[in-house]
């Protein structure tokens, strides 16, 4: 099992309505601009009930950690699955990504359920694939030449698909078989590259190495945005974790046992 570590998002005072409405002072142009302040976390009962509990992200992706921090899940235990992703590429992209994410979640959950540190309140796993118009699941580029060829092919094809599967698991407070709740979803986004992107731009992007560790060879949330004309679907799905569906899954698994949320809430009141 990979080494575990906690990843804390920076906690800063939230923005103030009074401060934002205040007129600028005469010396405003000479003053240092205020630092960016984080908003208050979402005050949803099912999120509040687990915020101080053991939440595992079964992924080493820093982008997924950042996205979960946006909904207030900042104290994450990062435990990537170490089982090889060996499902056949002959599967449909939908099945491939769903089976991979499910395997990640089940592997980490089965190890952690009997952990001396206590069982997890939640395990979140995800897998993202980029799929060519011909249905080919694109891997990470293995060389600069392959990287350039991959991006040129995506540009020339104009549009391609990105699929992300999210699987969320939580233990049941009751003894109901199988002892856990599991919910999953697969989200699809169509990404359209700009046909006017030149070979020189593609080569320059490849040499930034931003996309070297990404399936499909680009990161839409970074410099890779220069390749993209538009998308149809969720932006954060392309980044690696569709937030709205993930939030829905978290609520569903915590409602999988009627007593689970109440049990956590009562424990919080006693602390």
Short key terms for the protein model shown above:
8-stranded mixed beta sheet, globular, 9 helices, 271 residues, alpha+beta, single chain, disordered N terminus
Description:
With 271 residues, this protein is of the alpha+beta class. It is built from nine helices and eight strands. The chain has helices spanning 17-21, 45-48, 62-70, 93-112, 144-157, 199-206, 235-239, 243-254, 260-270, and strands at residues 5-7, 55-57, 76-78, 122-131, 137-138, 159-171, 180-193, 228-232. Strands 1, 2, 3, 4, 5, 6, 7 and 8 form an eight-stranded mixed β-sheet that branches.
The SS-based structural class is alpha+beta
- Individual helix count: 9
Can you count the beta strands? 8
Q: Could you say which overall geometry the principal axes of the C-alpha atoms support?
A: globular
Average pLDDT score: 85
Distance between the termini: 31 Å
H and E order: EHHEHEHEEHEEHEHHH
């Amino acid at each position: 099992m990979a080494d575990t570590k906690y990843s804390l998002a920076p906690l800063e005072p939230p923005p103030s309505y009074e401060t934002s409405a205040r007129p600028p002072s005469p010396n405003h142009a000479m003053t240092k601009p205020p630092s960016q302040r984080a908003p208050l976390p979402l005050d949803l009962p099912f999120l509040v009930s687990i915020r101080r509990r053991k939440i595992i992200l079964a992924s080493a992706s820093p982008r997924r950690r950042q996205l979960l921090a946006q909904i207030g899940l900042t104290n994450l235990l990062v435990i990537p699955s170490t089982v090889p992703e060996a499902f056949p590429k002959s599967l449909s992209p939908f099945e491939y990504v769903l089976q991979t994410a499910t395997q990640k979640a089940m592997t980490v959950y089965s190890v952690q359920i009997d952990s001396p540190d206590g069982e997890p309140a939640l395990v979140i796993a995800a897998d993202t694939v980029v799929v060519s118009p011909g249905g080919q699941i694109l891997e990470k580029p293995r060389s600069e030449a392959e990287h350039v060829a991959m991006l040129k092919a995506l540009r020339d094809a104009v549009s391609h698909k990105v699929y992300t599967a999210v699987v969320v698991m939580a233990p049941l407070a009751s003894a109901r078989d199988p002892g856990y709740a599991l919910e999953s979803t697969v989200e699809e986004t169509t990404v359209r590259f700009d046909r006017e992107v030149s070979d020189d731009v593609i080569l320059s992007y490849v040499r930034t190495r931003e996309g070297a560790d990404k399936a499909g060879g680009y990161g839409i949330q970074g410099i890779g945005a220069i390749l993209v004309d538009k998308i149809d679907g969720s932006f954060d799905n392309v980044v690696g974790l569709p937030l709205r569906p993930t939030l829905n899954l978290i609520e569903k698994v915590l409602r999988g046992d009627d007593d689970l949320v109440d049990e956590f809430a009562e424990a919080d009141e006693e602390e």
